[in-house]
Amino acid sequence: MSNRPEPLISISNLCKDYGKNRILKHVSFQIESGDLVSVIGPSGCGKSTLLRCLNCLEVLDDGEITIDGVCLRTVDHEKNEDFFWRQAHELRQNVGMVFQSFNLFPHKTLLDNVTLAQIVVKHERQEKAKALAMALLEKVGLGNLSGRYPWSLSGGEKQRAAIARALAMKPKVMLYDEPTSSLDPEMVEEVLQVMRDLDAEGMTQIIVTHEMRFAKDASDYIIYMENGEIIEISDEDEIFINPQDDRTRRFLKRYM
Amino acid sequence: MKSFYFIVLLLFGSVLLADESVLRWAADAESGAPNVFYENGDLSKLVGFEKDIIDYIAKRLGRRAEFHQNDWDSLVSGLQRNLYDVVINGFSPEEGKENSAIFSNPYYACGLSLIIRSNTDNIKSILDCSGAIVGVLRSSKAESVLTNSLKDVKIIGYPNEYCAISDLKNKRVDAILLDGQIAAYYTKKLSGLKIIDELDETRYSIVSAPGNGELMAAINGVIEDMQRDGSLDAIVSKWDLHNTFYSRLGEISSKIETPGSKPKSSGNQDKSTVQYVKVLPFFIKAACVTLVISILSMCVAIVLGLCFAIMRVYMPKWISFFAISMIELLRGIPLLIQLFFVFYGLPCIGITLPPLVAGILTLGMNYAAYEAENFRAGMAAVPYGQMEAARALGMNQWQSLRHVILPQAFTFVLPPLTNDFIAILKDSSLVSLITIMELTKTYMLIASNSFNFFEMGAIVAFIYFLIGLPFAQLAKLAERHLKLEKRAYSSRKIGGKHNR
Hints:
heterodimer; A: alpha/beta; Rossmann fold; 10 strands; 40% helix; B: alpha/beta; D-Maltodextrin-Binding Protein, domain 2; MetI-like fold; nine-stranded mixed sheet; two-stranded antiparallel sheet; 11 strands
């Protein structure tokens, strides 16, 4: 399961509030390079929020996140908002994110969707960005659709394009927020296959999902969350065959 | 190209013209007969007895006379703003403007005439006007005389003679009280009116700004000379403006020399002689001014509005608060007041803008408030996930706005933007009040001088319509290009292969 002692992602004591509600309560875990981790749990348990915190789409209220040596704490803790956002920007460079609703840029072709951030953020030359974009679109099986606009694609194609877009920034970690939840059943598999391929290449991936079968088959391990807390972290066989906690058991019973 | 030079001239006119060899004089030629007016609405033929007088004075002073059009109400304000050197337009020193202006010796005098419809028989003199509705020119001598002498008379102030006269003909007022020679001119020109009473004396003086004492002394010298050598009498005779009050004014002069050119007898030309082809160049020139003002104002509005919208939505609290205040302020105050504030108010604190710049800035800023809200709505219409996706890809806020949010927002904003352009096209008529000769002002001048509000109105309305039309079409095209290509594409697909 692990071949490096130093964890790529380390989260300790992470807390997040929405107003008076505490959504994440002292969440701590570590992920090593190359792992594929599934986060499961009932709706509203905080798993999406956890993922968004990892990409600084949410500002954390307590605790700290370290990804590939870049450490992020609360704004208060740093006493310097500029420093916080510089850190956040640096941290994001290593993290790719895929959304449930794809969020492709509708005014751009697939190719431009994939090249835009390379050119704007990394200041890549046009040809170089295009070459990488074509390679990535090829890789997710969309090489022949590079000139199309997002609205002309199916859900599965859109989601694969979104993955290619995130990969273009050469992240060390990929985060997926329920990537298959808004897809028709027959399109789920083509997206999951892309993630399996990436896993085989050694990409570190964290997936918030309701696809229990995928979680069971592909994950290196599974995090079960409920009410903003991590209830169980365990090997996939372990959690599905022999859940340690009552709450995990109840949840899995409904899904399996 | 010609109109371009014209615009440049307008823009820099007031800067260039601080020139000693030029005598800049102003009057309101809108229904200004017989003082200063355009002959039969031909904007290349400025005539009038006051024009003759000022031309003569300028010649004697060795300067070139240059005419500036301004509304009667604003003529004195323009002096303070140094838009021109003198005003000659039937002003009398008694009107309580001593602090803001200096007056020359009188060059003309006349009585006030009461005009009624020919078929009115219950009004025999000014005293019968108790209980009646009487029209006067706004802030004229007649107005103060009437207010002071009669108790229960209802007075209506008009911006120009033509409005007063037509209201009299249309029975909205029972009588009007006007300066004698103006009353004479209009009763001669238009049928169905008669003068029944003459009272009180009003004397005309040239007006200048308090700082122009030297110029005024020189002008007074010329006026004295003119009275002595009969050239003033010649002009008055040419325009057939002699009366008892004027005769008393210049005791010295008696002999009358008529200059070479025979005076044009007024009243022999009616609207059928107005050549529509002849007025067209003036309308086209004015339409160019209107178009340039509208386009430049809209550019100001779009740029400024976008800034306000971004400041309001994405900037820290205090900047956002500033943007909100600006938006509320700019759209909460009438455009007209903003216009007067910028043009006549700001010079008091040392900021003097040329008319065209002031007009464009004011219109642009006023519309910026509306565009800001349009842009805000447009940005809000872009799903929040777009911003998140851009940020997650490592773009900063500005990059996300520039490459992801704004291009999408623009497609939502385009239809209201077109709307506002057509609105600004129409609102640009307000800048005529700060001396700019645009379409509406040109219409008023031509129509009031040719007594042809109906046909000229139709022409000007058609021109406004024509200007607005291509922009609506252009916007439609752009819209199709930006957004509706999607619809076209998908509708093609419905009939074709299966829908993916």
